[in-house]
Each structure stands twice: as structure tokens, then as C-alpha cells.
Amino acid sequence: MEYVLTAESLSKQYKNFKALNDFSIHVPKGSIYGFIGKNGAGKTTLIRLVCGLQSPTSGSYALYGVPNTDSGIARSRRRMGAVVETPSIYTDMTAEDNLKEQFRIIGLPSFDDIPVLLDLVGLSDTGKKKAKHFSLGMKQRLGIAIALAGSPDFLILDEPVNGLDPQGIIEMRELILKLNRERGITFLISSHILDELSRLATHYGFIDSGHMIREISAADLDAACRKCVRVQVSDIHALTRVLDEMHMDYNIFSDTMADIFAKVNISQLAIALADQGCDIISVSEREESLESYYVNLIGGGKHNE
Amino acid sequence: MSRLLSADLARLRKSIFFKLCVIGMFLFGIYMKVMDYVSCTQYGFTVSLFSMLTIYMFVLVFMIPAFVSLFVGAEYSDGTIRNKLIIGHTRLSIYLSNLITGVAAALIFTAAYLIAGLAVGIPLCGVSEANYRELVSLFLLSIVTMTAIASLSTLIGMLCQSRAVTAVVNILAVLFLLVMSIYVSARLNEPEYYQSITTMTDDGSIQDVAEEKNPTYLRGTERKVYEFFNEFIPTSQAVAITQGSVSDYSSVARMAGYSAGIAVVSTAVGIFVFRRKDIK
Known about the structure:
The complex is a heterodimer. Chain A is of the alpha/beta class.
């Protein structure tokens, strides 16, 4: 698999606080990579390092295979765009002037693409309105337009839907999907709004305390989160024997409980278990969401947000 | 760096504060020349085209730090410095581009004052004979002094990520240097002797009959140190330029050398620290 961004043993220390600790990441080309973690987990720190705003304390990362220690990293960065925390826009300029400024910084010879970009992010009718008078959603979209100015094929968005109203969230989601499908842009999206991320992401990375806990594709996550029937019984061995005889997928996770990944005829199961001298204590149908997967993975009880 | 410079100069042209400063300097140039003409004709003095022409430096001592604070500070407050770093511009280029833009702005402010002063002064005063060597020396010194002030302001602006803090620190630094300049100048201008006894003669006139050594008069090494600071501090140089006369050309050369040194050292320190700085 071809990766746009990889990192190995990456660490970043601020005085006595280790923001990233032996961190690794693998962002596949063409993916929408949902980067999930609680506040202070190290999401923005990684983004700052990748964007060249800060240097790692140890370890390394590579953009398009070019390590950060290589002088060619600046050339690799020209292929990416980013909106880090707040959109980076001159608030006393119009949307068009902001894009002109970015075109000059990049060194693009003409401003011909500016109307196309403004149209793409839905800001073509803002005229002489200065960015300071824009809504948060408009500012976010202008930030994305600026990040798109150099026609990047990798876009990093740090909390892109934070503070947006429902309409703004929908527009942002549609824009990201459009850019990913039509232009093949790879996205790294950091967020803790999991429901929103689950509508977009093709891959996930879960970070906690500066460490990557797990990287998983959306397909694998769907498989892990599939619908199941949770059964609590008096004899788990009897249950496994019965389920094996019925050729059903299951997962045992305690001395009395198991998840069965199949459509279960409760009457047949109860009769079969009764034959084995096993009682059913409880049965519940459940479906694991991205949120519950995340909570199970990180450990909801130890959060201190 | 040319791309960054092009972007920064384009932003300069769009800046409302920059436009206000240019207009302000233009009006100030007209005002000073008209007032000079009015006061000279009122008291019967010869009107000179070149008097009051270097007073712009005293205004720029405050205007440059204020402008640089807002211009460079916007890079941090709006977060736009990230756009430059993300697409791969080096920190050296970003720093130098901001510095050059600050110096360019200071030169434009100067030009606005001079154009206004000459536009009003030539019809009012005519083109009179003048010590052009002195004028050119002061003008060249003012450019180096402006560069030093812009370099110090850029240093603070690039290392401090809060626009408000940058503005406060820059203005306080200028005020501190100005107070220091006034103190140094006052100590150097103290008389070596002062009259201790004043008598009235028979015809009623007042006569000083004895002179006494001033104990606070600076002598020896101490005087040399004060003289050094009087030439070294950019605000002292600004005061000297504002006065519009040169008593010693070697002193002007030394002042220019000191300012050039301040500009080079502050820029080198600024770039060194900025390259290692974590940007949020």
C-alpha cells in the first residue's frame, strides 16, 4: 500500500510534558483518515510537526516517502495543504484577496483559478465582504480554499467541524467527500466528533496520551462493530459447544458472556442449552458504534477532559 | 524569497494602517513646512527650504515599531505564518521578507514626508543654497537608523506570538530608549563650570565673578562611555537627525556604523531563535 504520511517512534516533548510518545501513523494514499483522540491526546501536535511548525524531539516522519530530516521535505510539503486549529486567513481582507495573497506566496503566475476555488467552497458571492465578517463556517471554507490553492493531493484538517452549525457540518462533509472523490485528495482529519467522522472516514487512527493505540480501516472497523446478540449464561463451556454445533460465529469475553454474530433463534438456543444443563441469564441485541469502539479501546473511565 | 516579498508588499499596499501612516506623514510634512514659513516670516528670519526637513525621524521612531508590531503581529494573530511554513518556505526567508517590508514601509513614510515638505516648501521658500553634504549625510544616516529600529521591532514581532504583547513591548522599548537618550544627552550637556557668585556693579549691570567646577560634569572614561551611548542608541541618533545639523561627519559615520551593527546583530539573533521556535 502506498502511504502519503508515515511516522515511526515520533516524540515531542514540551518541557516536562510529552505530547507525542513513540508515535506511529500510516495514512494510505486516497484515504480519508480519521484521527481520533480526546483533547490533549496529541492530535494537533502531530499536525504541527507534519506542517513544519514545530520539530520532533526524536523519531521521524515521512511525507510521500521523504523523511523530515531530508532537505527535500520542503518540496514534499508543497504537495500538501492544511487548516490547523483555526483557519489561517487575513481577517481584514476579502476572500478573493486572501486567495491572491496565497497564490503570491506559492508563486502561481495567474489568478485565473481563484473563481473556481471560491465556487468550489461556496464563497463566490462574498464580494467585498471582509473575512472578519464571515461566519465560522465561511472562514473554515475559506481556510480550505487557501489550503487548496497549490492544488495539493494531501489535505490536513484539524477539527474542521468544531463550532459549525448543522448546515455548516453538512456542507463541510460534502466538500470533503467531493474533493476526495473528484480530485483524489487524501485527507487526514482530526476530530473528536465521532459520529461525523464515521460518515466520512475510510481509515481510522486512535491516539491516546501521545501514543497511537490502533490503526484500522473502516471496513475492518465495521466488521468489529457488527450487529450481535450478547448472551449471559451459567456455563460458558456449554454455550461454546452449542454454538459450535450450530456453526455460529461468536466471541467470548468473560466467564459467563459471549457475543454471537448471527441471527439467533432464541427458542432453539434455549432448548439446546437446557439439554446441556446450562441456564440463560440474559440476552440482549447490540450494535457497536465508532463511539463505543473508541470508549472500549481508550477506556472511558480514565478520561480527564 | 521573492514570492514572499511580493506577497508581503501586496499586503502592505492593502494595509489600512499603512495608508493612514503615509497620509499622516504627508500631512505632517505640509504642516511643518507651512508652520516653519509662517514663523520665519513673522519674526523676519530667512526662510530655508531645508529647515525642518529631517524632523520626520522623530515621528518614525514611534511609527516604525507601531507599524511593524501590527504588520508582523497579524501573521501570528491571523495564523497566516502557518500558510507560509506549510507550503515549504524557510524561516529565514519569512523573517527577512518581514524585515525588508518593514524597512520599505519606513522609507515610504519618509518619502511621503519629504515629497509633501518639498512640494509645499519650493513654492513658499524657493530653492536656496544649502549644505547638501550635510543633508545627504543626515538622510543616509536616517535610512540606517530606520533599518536598526525596524530590525529591533521585527525581532520582537517575530519572537512574540501575541500581537498585543508585541505592540506594547515595542512601544515601551522605544520609550525606554528615548528616556535613556534624553538622560545621556542631558548628562553630556552639563556645563563644566558654573557661575557661583553673581554681583551687581555700580552701573547696575549683573556680573558673574567666579566660576566653579561642576562636580557632576562627566570627565575621562565616564564621559567617553556616555558619548558612546549618545552615538550608539538609535533614538539618540534620531534626535541628532531631527536637529538637522552635523557638527562632526566622523560622528555621523560612527552612528551609521553602530546602527548597521544593531541591524545585523538583532537580525542574526532573531533568525537564530526564530528557526528553533515552536509555532502554534
